[in-house]
From TrEMBL:
Gene Ontology molecular-function annotations: ATP binding; ATP hydrolysis activity
SUPFAM superfamilies the record matches: P-loop containing nucleoside triphosphate hydrolases (SSF52540)
Species whose genome carries this gene: Salmonella enterica
Name of the protein in question: AAA family ATPase
Keyword DNA-binding attributed: no
Single GO biological process annotation from the record: cellular response to heat
Keywords attached to this entry: ATP-binding, Chaperone, Nucleotide-binding
Amino acid sequence: AGPSGVGKTETVLQLAELLYGGRQYLTTINMSEFQEKHTVSRLIGSPPGYVGYGEGGVLTEAIRQKPYSVVLLDEVEKAHPDVLNLFYQAFDKGEMADGEGRLIDCKNVVFFLTSNLGYQVIVEHADNPEAMQEALYPVLADFFKPALLARMEVVPYLPLSRETLAVIIAGKLARLDNVLRARFGAEVVIEPEVTDEIMQRVTRAENGARMLESVIDGEMLPPLSLLLLQKMAANIAIARITLGVANGAFTADVEDVPDEDTQPVAEAEDEAVL
């Protein structure tokens, strides 16, 4: 539980890779699609005599096909409370019955439930973990039945600090650096001002690290992508790629490989400003 954009879903993705070897072993179910009581049949399948009988449920079929996997119940607070009754036996004994009455073994399945419930409490008590636990429990108990809540381990996610955001930004830029070097065989320079500008844009909103992808993919990369496509269309080799900031906007410079047969007066250079 915690605010938006603090890494709850990313934690699940990483654990799927560490525990089972890849994200293909992750089943994500958006619980906002189960706001009505009758939608429980979509999770476990319809019983005999009802429409959809024999088709199986999205949850039970996923567990049957991948008995060693991770199941993410995303935005669980948006589901109808009666839908959660399915998980009493799953969390306690490691088994659940599908719509046809067959038992599904889920002892080797790791369940994660993400929620924004109580995020105000988490933010207010971020410096006092003991007080946070005491204040958070009543908020969760208003939605989850105590018997179900007792079968779960509550992990509060604190708001991301600037230091943590800086580490995340550095990791994403390092990944971008590696991709560009591998694809174009060029030197890649990412100026320090890029990190500062991304940090400034991300901290304007209250979405935490969720805005990172939007800033990088939607604001920083488009001018660079245009230049790279132009070079590729002209079959021009690239020597150096530089990402920077000018007047509050992301910039991209792409330098050509000098022609060895001629002595150019200056290196060919293109610049784009967002």
